[in-house]
Structures are given as structure tokens and as C-alpha cells.
Amino acid sequence: MPSDEKDDACIRMTIPSSPILLPVIRSTVEKFCEQLGFDFRTAGQVVLAVDEGLSNIMRHGYGGNQTKPIEIEISPIPFLDAAKGVRVCLRDHGKTFDPVKVLSEKLPDPEMLSTGGLGVHIMITCMDRVDYQQAPGGGMQLTMIKFLPSESKGS
User: Fold this and answer.
1) H helices of the chain, where?
2) Of the chain's two ends, which shows fewer C-beta atoms within 10 Å, N or C?
3) CA atoms 37, 39, 42, 43: torsion sign
4) Under CATH, what is the fold of the domain 11-152?
């Protein structure tokens, strides 16, 4: 997981890939964003993106196996003495995929939504930066960044 700088406000956890834990993670992300100064709407965007990322890992990376580990890191992006934004990293040990292919695909046909395909596009819409990398030892690492609204205009 990326955190190079020392940051006492960072949350790190490893959870099994069980959908029953999604509400707990959503609540944690929402409260963390609120503490950093995000408004309700923007915090909701971060929550939605994280939920989509975790759901994709559970469904596609692990094929529904609910016992596989997912590593989660939630950390502020510091700027002087205040938070500039939030970074969320999700790391799995499941199937790898080519993110360039997924990111270059056009939005799926609305009639095909029941089969999936919108998750990555939702994450890109909700977050300021979305980066997929193949992780050392297998699996994928997803890093998503959202800047505080006042910061994103000046970035």
C-alpha cells in the first residue's frame, strides 16, 4: 500500500471479500471524509466509488468467493496543516485485468447493465484520480483520490 509519508490519521484494514461488510466500509469512508471537511454530496461520491471498487473486487477479482482478503487504506492527502483530500487504496489478490481496456471502452448499453460494466466509469466520474496497477505477487491495486472541492479547482 502506498503511504510513504508518516500519517497517524491513516486507516488500514484487511477484510474478507464478503458483501455483508460493505455497509461498514461505506460508513467508515463517509465519516472519514466528513472529518476531512468534505460536504455530504462529495463524501457520498467517495463512498460510491469505494463501494464500486470493492464490489468489483468481490464479483470479478474473486468470482464471488467471500473468504479472500481485501486490503483497504484510507488516508488524508495533507497540505500544510490541513487536509487537501482523501486517498483510498484497495488491494486484492484476485484475477488481474487490463485497466486500459476497461477504461477505453465506451459506456455499456443501458440494456446490458444487469451484466455489469458501469463500476469503473462510476469511479472515474466520482473521483478526481483513479489508477489501477497490477500488484506485486498478483492481483490488482486500485488507488483513488478525491480532492476537497475548494482544492480541486486550484489543482
Assistant:
1) 22-36, 40-56, 99-104, 119-126, 149-152
2) C
3) positive
4) Heat Shock Protein 90 (3.30.565)
